[in-house]
Automatic annotation (TrEMBL):
Domain (HicB-like antitoxin of toxin-antitoxin system): residue spans on this chain: 4-89
InterPro entries for this protein: HicB-like (IPR031807), Lambda_DNA-bd_dom_sf (IPR010982), TTHA1013/TTHA0281-like (IPR035069)
One of the Pfam families matching this protein, by short name: HicB_lk_antitox
Name this polypeptide is given: Type II toxin-antitoxin system HicB family antitoxin
Species annotation: Trinickia fusca
GO molecular function: DNA binding
Domain of life the protein comes from: Bacteria
């Protein structure tokens, strides 16, 4: 899973501002640290959608400094990021992936939607069609 380091900073009205050094498009606020970090996950997923829409690779997270807070993407979202990044690297468009998987475009749109609960086996098949294998581990 991808865990992105965050920068927490009090803003002028006392709220906590959360930014991501690796994903400058993502920012969020909260009244306290827990709320700010919860909102930050939503902001991170929204920023990932921008990268997907613009067909840009989503940067991998940098290593967090000692004591630095992180926001961790769910495993399924991480798999979707890895899939989208591989598509960008190989120059494979959604229409081409749909053809290779014998799926319709709305199914591919959902497959690359970080907020949609896709089936992992479909993501695995997509990686296979790209000549890759999804590897899952427990840490």
């Amino acid at each position: 899973m991808y865990s992105y380091p965050v920068h927490l900073e009090k803003d002028t009205n006392g709220s906590l501002l959360v930014t991501f050094p690796d994903i400058p498009e993502a920012a969020s606020v909260g009244d306290d640290e827990d709320e700010a970090l919860l909102n930050a996950l939503d902001a991170l997923e929204s920023a990932i959608e921008i990268y997907f829409d613009e067909k840009r690779e989503v940067p991998a997270p940098s290593k967090a400094r000692k004591g630095q807070r992180t926001v961790t993407l769910p495993a399924l979202v991480t798999a979707k990021v890895l899939l989208a990044n591989e598509m960008v690297r190989q120059g494979v468009r959604k229409a081409e992936l749909a053809r290779r998987l014998e799926l319709h475009m709305p199914q591919i749109d959902r497959l690359l939607d970080p907020r949609h609960s896709s089936k992992l086996d479909t993501i695995e098949r997509a990686f296979e069609k790209l000549g890759k294998r999804l590897d899952v581990s427990v840490v």
